[in-house]
Every structure is written in structure tokens, then in C-alpha cells.
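User: Predict the complex with 6-phosphogluconic acid.
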Amino acid sequence: MADTTAQANIGVVGLAVMGSNLARNLASREGNRVAVYNRTWERTEGVVEAFPDAEFIPARTMEEFAASLKKPRAAIIMVKAGRPTDAVIEELTRVFEPGDIIVDGGNALFTDTIRREKAVRETGINFVGAGISGGEEGALKGPSIMPGGSAEAWETLGPIFRSIAAIAEGEPCVTHVGTDGAGHFVKMIHNGIEYADMQLIAEAYDLIRRGTGKSPAEIAEIFAEWNKGELESYLIEITAEVLRQVDAETGKPLVDVILDQAGAKGTGAWTVQTALDLGIPVSGIAEAVFARSLSSKPAQRAAASNLPGPAEEWTVDDPEGFIEDVRQALYASKIVAYSQGFDEIVAGAEQYGWDIKKGEIAKIWRGGCIIRAQFLNRITEAYEDDPGLVALLTAPYFRRALTEAEPAWRRVVIAAVQGGIPSPAFSSSLAYYDGLRADRLPAALVQGQRDFFGAHTYRRVDKEGTFHTLWSGDRSEVAATDTH
Ligand code: 6PG
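Assistant: Here is the predicted structure with 6-phosphogluconic acid placed in the model:
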């Protein structure tokens, strides 16, 4: 019979790899005693036996699990998002009491978290949606943690999360992001930026490979070199590793035997769907999501494969110069993607009433998470210098970086178009940059078209008011307030 005296200060429900790694991380930190529960007892037994030093407190039932936790009880759910999570929430609300804390550590859609937090709060129990980034290794060694939920819950969870989070520049990569779904919202943005980052790196690889004929192994060394400069990041680092990998079976570069159809669990799509609702252009993230969708349309790709492209085989005259151009274009496009991601955070905070500190988010993304990078220090500095920054890419540091990179960026997009090389994230980021800095946009014509067919009215540059032209009449402009 399990020792039912309440000894654990934190519990984990769901002991697949992520859950058991997180439990091991928690147990390895001074001051934590961890209760564990899994739907199948055998799994729980296996984890307890495999890691005796963790001194886990196993529970066969939810009742035992609750009894082993000191009050206010706190449990982290690490099961699949959706119905499995709802089922565990239901079980925990049955055995927990007012003041206790239920944490959903999965990748839940933030609107689900808002709904769940409201429902659970009616029982007096705290519900916290916490983004946990860094994959299985991060869960074990130190993730970046993005919890939402109440201040009351944060009081208990803060020290526990700080004890297991990654450390960057001497600080734990965790902050109380905001109330109810704020944590899962910011995790969603993290994933959207992750998609954009990965797509940009993939396009850089494709351009260099097809433009210079270099092998994956040679391009791996280029990325390894780039990882020593302003592009230093986990994703650049692992890209070099992936490109170095040789397939044991065929002896070919692994990247050449991987089927070129990308999967997605959906968090990138959520970022784009939410951005559309919020009216925030996230072109780099959107193109990254669509590039994965396009890659997974084999029938259409086969049917389109003989459509004409550039006449001659594309190669670049100055390979080394082109590679440097691609490096600069990658950095500039990355700046745009992060700027767009932070724009969505600002808009989401406004829409949902969250007080999200952008500088704090940049700080906790410096370590532990998939997009961790030196670059996040620059974003932290930009928001520390000017918390009300109207667009990240206009901060002095990024303005300088874009000014330096702009010529190369254009050369790369031109080369990609001439070479027939798809570069949706590079080119959409440049188009966004040009759109944002343009003093006049063709939106004026769009307004005219809308007024012509739908009488949707337009404003003028030279006077207040809204106007409608009587297109079918003498076309004399009529102030909309006077239209008959
Ligand atoms: C993280 C990752 C993770 C992500 C998976 C799958 O922060 O640790 O973002 O949460 O969900 O890597 O992502 P996709 O299948 O959507 O690419």
C-alpha cells in the first residue's frame, strides 16, 4: 500500500517520455518530491523502477495520487492534447479541492485553455495552461516554460518551475506570462516562429545546394560556421547535424533519402488562423505552414512536375559570394518572422486582456526552447530599451541589421526567382518589409474597387470623412455622409 502521508510538493500525470522526463527533472531538483500517476500502473511501476534515485511516490489511483500531495496540491498533466487532457482534468477535479492547482503542460489551443480555466475555476481549483518547450531533452534537462493561469497558482508553481527551467544569462527561462490562456497563446506563437525559422533555414539550404552544387556535408560546415555568428541558434546547430548524417543503409546523405513531405501537429496553423482573426500579417509563418502543406500534395506535385521553368540549369557565378548573400537574407527574413510573431503577441494580449511583457518573453526564449538563440538577447535588449516599440524590426539594432542585409536579401530573392527555386518564406518576408516601409500602397486602388462594386466607401488623404463615388451617375464624388 502506498505511503499516503502527503509528501510530494508536485505531481505528474502521464508518464510517456515527455512526462517521465519532466518528472525526473523535477525530482532531481533540491526541495522537490514528486508524485507520479499513469493510466496504466505498469508504466508507473516501470518509471519508478528505472529511476530509483528520483524517489518517486507512485499512485495506483487518482485518490492515492491526491493523498500523496501536500496542499495546495499541484499536478502537471502531460498527456495528449484534446480529449485525453479533458479526461484527466475531469478526474483531477474529482479528487482535488479548492486552492489546488491543475497544470496542462501539453500543446493545447489557447482558446481551449481559456474555456477550461473558466470551468475549473468554478470549482475553486486553479487551472494553468503552461507551454513547455524544448522537446524530450528540454523536459529532462531544462525547458523554457510559459505558464498562464492565476497569480495564486503562480505563487506555488513559480519556485517549482524556476527549479527545473533552462538557465540563460543566469536567469531561469520561465515567467508568469499572463492569466488564463496567455501561456498557451505564447507557446503557440513560439511554435509559429519555430515553423518560420525552420522553413527559412530549409530554403537557405535549398538555394545553396542547387545554386552551388555543394553536398549536404559541405553545407553542414557552412551552417556550423554561421552558428558562430549572429545566426547562432539551436535550429542552426541541429541543421548542421542533420546535414552531416549519412544513411547507414544506403551510404547516402540522410537528407537525400528522407521523403520531402513535411508533417505538422497543427500549432503553426493555429498561429496563422489566430493571426488572421487578429488582423496581424505573419507572412513568414504562414508561408512556412503552407510550404509544409504544399510538400504533402504528391499527386498535385506529380501532375505539375512537367510545367515549364527557367530554360537553363541554374548555377551562381560566385558561390562564396552567394553563400554570404544567403546568410544575410536568412538573418533579415528571421528578423521579419520574429517581428511578426511579437506583433501577434501584442495583438493577442490586447484582444484577451493579458498584460504580457514582450521583453520577458524574449528572455525566457533565450534558453531551453526550440527557437533558443543569441538573437533573443537582441530582442530582449530592444524591448528593454523601448517597451512600447511599435514594430520590433524598427528597433535601432534591427534597423541597422536590415540596412546591411537588404542588398543581399534582394539579390537572393531575385536569384531564387530566376533559378525557379521556391523561396516562399524569403520572398514573402522581403515583400512584407517592402510593404511596411512603402509610403504609398495599392490599397488605395483596392478601396476604389470596393467602393465601385460594394459602395464600401473610402477615406481621403486630404480631408476627414468617408466618401462614396456615385459610379453609375456623373461619378462626381459624394461624401458618404451625404450619399442618397
Ligand atoms: C517544442 C516544440 C513542440 C512541437 C513539436 C511538433 O516547443 O518543444 O515546438 O512543442 O509541437 O516539435 O511540432 P510540429 O509537428 O507542429 O512541427
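The chain has 20 helices and eleven strands.
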